[in-house]
Write a structure and sequence with these properties.
With 410 residues, this protein is mainly α. It has one domain. 67% of the residues lie in helices and 1% in strands. It has helices at 3-10, 13-33, 42-45, 52-58, 87-98, 103-129, 134-137, 140-145, 151-166, 170-181, 191-202, 204-228, 230-242, 250-254, 260-285, 294-308, 317-326, 331-357, 364-388, and strands spanning 72-74, 77-79. It has a two-stranded antiparallel sheet with strand order 1-2. The radius of gyration is 21 Å and the shape is globular. The N and C termini lie far apart (55 Å). Residues 395-410 have low confidence and may be disordered.
Length: 410
């Protein structure tokens, strides 16, 4: 390709982002496909572990059990089709199981069903942010986690919500956030910034309408499951309430004897305080005729959640990744986060191999994991401020008219 042709290609950000994203997803599948040969230690040694294959058996997916409606929680264990994820993720997992005959086929089918959501996110980000969409499409984290769990669904729903918001369609943004919350709960956090954004722009009625639509969407999706079997539906949330911090969290590393109840109390307090401060900062920043920093506040809320929550699974990086494209922050932050995330990923799973198959406890892999976890925590703390003070991306910036201010109010 000539230099002129290369420049012309770069001026078409959507095809470039989609092409790069497709290659990254192929690389991600190649990584996980190593586990098609079996879970005999290679899942940790070769870093191909994914939740899809083991959960196919232990969550009743292989038996085509429709999730939640016959399930429950007994002695801390999910039974009868209950699953640790909100209802739309459970239904997606069940549907993929209908097309599969064994755990290996399930990984292949799930990857084929999940991949379009990664491409959809890449497309929407390219429309909003042009070439910054490559920070999603070419991210190492996308290769690591696209087919690790079902988080790609919620990430795509959030990006779709931000796209709708950028087009001046806050109600559709709220609907997509409600859908996202029925996939993984974190998109519901973004309804608070959406409310404040609409409140600043159009007044209390618009703000409450947007928030109510998002909550109603989430509620209507969950209502049938809660009515049919409230125990099976609530088992998802009870399971997370009763579980302790995971091994690769600051809470386990900092206080391994911390009980679930104590961890819940501490983390809930920290999350509530940080969320209030972040939302308040956004409100103050929107004074004097300026728009509410919706994307910035959403990014900061998510960074705070990832920092303080008692569970921080490696694939949660997919949740954060779009904000590196949506906000005009230095790409060095993306590089730094990619590095510490890779340290966590390699460290966690190589340490599991050392521990489970070599009988070794304190190994180099564990030291790498610990360094990655604390490095990630430090970056998340910094990113709260970085995101809050950033400008929106090139076309992710607000297109809406300036807020209507009450006469005499500044």
């Amino acid at each position: 390709m000539t230099s002129a042709g290369a420049r012309a290609a770069l001026n078409r950000p959507a095809p470039v982002a989609l092409g790069v994203c497709f290659v990254t997803l192929l690389a991600g599948f190649a990584l996980k496909a190593q586990c098609l040969a079996g879970f005999d230690g290679r899942q940790y040694e070769r870093l191909c572990y994914n939740d899809l294959q083991p959960l196919y058996g232990v969550r009743g997916i292989q038996d085509d059990i429709f999730p939640y409606v016959h399930g429950g929680l007994e002695s801390g264990e999910l039974i009868g089709g209950a699953i640790e994820y909100p209802v739309l993720t459970g239904v997606f997992a069940w549907f993929a199981g209908l097309l599969s005959g064994d755990a290996n086929t399930y990984l292949v089918v799930s990857a084929a069903l999940l991949a379009p959501f990664g491409l959809l996110a890449a497309y929407h980000l390219s429309v909003m942010t042009k070439r910054r969409a490559l920070l999603w499409a070419a991210a190492p984290a996308l290769a690591l986690y696209a087919f690790h769990n079902w988080d790609l669904l919620a990430a795509a729903a959030c990006v779709g919500a931000f796209y709708s918001w950028s087009k001046g369609k806050p109600v559709w943004a709220a609907v997509l956030l409600g859908i996202g919350g029925a996939l993984k709960l974190y998109p519901l956090f973004f309804l608070a910034p959406l409310l404040l954004d609409r409140l600043r722009r159009r007044g209390l009625r618009d703000g409450l309408t947007a928030a109510a639509v998002g909550v109603a969407t989430f509620g209507l999706i969950n209502l049938p499951f809660a009515l049919i079997n409230s125990q099976g539906w609530f088992a998802t949330y009870q399971f997370h309430r009763e579980r302790g911090p995971n091994y690769d969290s600051i809470w386990y590393l900092g206080s391994p004897s911390l009980s679930p109840d104590r961890a819940n109390f501490i983390t809930a307090g920290l999350l509530a305080a940080s969320f209030v401060l972040i939302l308040l900062f956004g409100w103050v920043r929107s004074q004097h005729g300026r728009a509410y920093p919706f994307l910035q506040t959403c990014g900061a809320l998510l960074a705070a959640f990832l920092l303080f929550n008692k569970v921080h699974s490696p694939q949660y990086t997919l949740w954060l990744l779009p904000f590196f494209a949506l906000l005009n922050v230095s790409s060095l932050w993306w590089v730094a986060y990619s590095v510490v995330d890779l340290l966590v990923y390699v460290g966690v799973f190589r340490w599991y191999f050392d521990l489970g198959y070599q009988g070794q406890q304190d190994t180099l892999a564990k030291q790498v994991m610990v360094a990655g976890v604390w490095g990630r925590a430090g970056l998340l703390l910094l990113l709260i401020g970085v995101f809050l003070t950033a400008r929106a991306g090139r076309r992710g910036a607000v297109r809406h008219p300036q807020p209507n201010l009450v006469p005499g109010r500044r």
